[in-house]
Amino acid sequence: MAQFHTIFKNMTRVEIDLFFNKAYPGIARHFNPRVLEELQRARSQGFHCVLLSGTYAQMLNIVAEELGFDSVIAADIHYRDGKVNLKSQLAAIDGPVKLTLLQEVFAGENINWFLSRAYGDSYADINVMQMTGEPVAVNPEERLAEYARSRGWKII
């Protein structure tokens, strides 16, 4: 992500928003239909749906708006003097950090994690998935697939 981030050199927030808005239709074509069905089912069951990812928040806010997520937790692009600040370190959001951010965002909320669901595709998602009562592996990488099978988790 740090290497990819350099493509935004000298770009403003508005230019990056335009970039992500133009990119969104191409990205959306790759959404897993079964995951979209799961999201729709969770929303109809009254779940608060959170999109938690290590990718850019500006992109995921578009996804969240289009698909009906309630909250987004993702990497923020930093700006200085109206343009992307490449010298500012882009915060890596990996497995342990995802769990910490999720807990920080919902600190003080009365959440029954056992009645919550978590979807993940990477072994790095294990920390968040383990804290819920319904972990679901989605097109999982092999390590996560093995882990999910050994625990009887749902796999899409």
Describe, in short, the structure shown.
It is built from 7 helices and 7 strands.
Protein described:
With 156 residues, the protein is of the alpha/beta class. The protein contains 7 helices and 7 strands, in the order H-H-H-E-H-E-E-E-H-E-H-E-H-E. The chain has helices spanning 2-5, 13-28, 33-44, 57-67, 95-105, 126-130, 142-151; strands at 50-56, 71-75, 79-80, 83-84, 117-120, 134-137, 154-155. It has a 3-stranded parallel β-sheet. It has a two-stranded parallel ribbon with strand order 1-2. A two-stranded antiparallel ribbon has the order 3-4. Strand 5, helix 6 and strand 6 form a beta-alpha-beta unit. The chain is globular and about 50 Å long. The chain starts with a helix and ends with a strand.
Number of strands: 7
Mean pLDDT: 92
* Strands in their spatial order, largest beta sheet: 5-6-7
Structural class: alpha/beta
From the alpha-carbon coordinates, what is the Rg to the nearest angstrom?
Answer: 17 Å
Distance between the termini: 26 Å
Strand content: 15-25%
Q: What's the main sheet like?
A: 3 strands, parallel
Order of helices and strands: HHHEHEEEHEHEHE
Shape: globular
Helix proportion range: 40-55%
**Uncertain runs:** none
Put simply, the count of helices is 7
What are the key terms here?
single chain; 7 helices; alpha/beta; two-stranded parallel sheet; 3-stranded parallel sheet; 44% helix; 156 residues; 7 strands; 17% strand
Describe the SSE topology.
Layout: H1 2-5, H2 13-28, H3 33-44, E1 50-56, H4 57-67, E2 71-75, E3 79-80, E4 83-84, H5 95-105, E5 117-120, H6 126-130, E6 134-137, H7 142-151, E7 154-155
Parallel strand pairs: 1-2, 5-6, 6-7
Antiparallel strand pairs: 3-4
Helix pairs in contact: 2-4
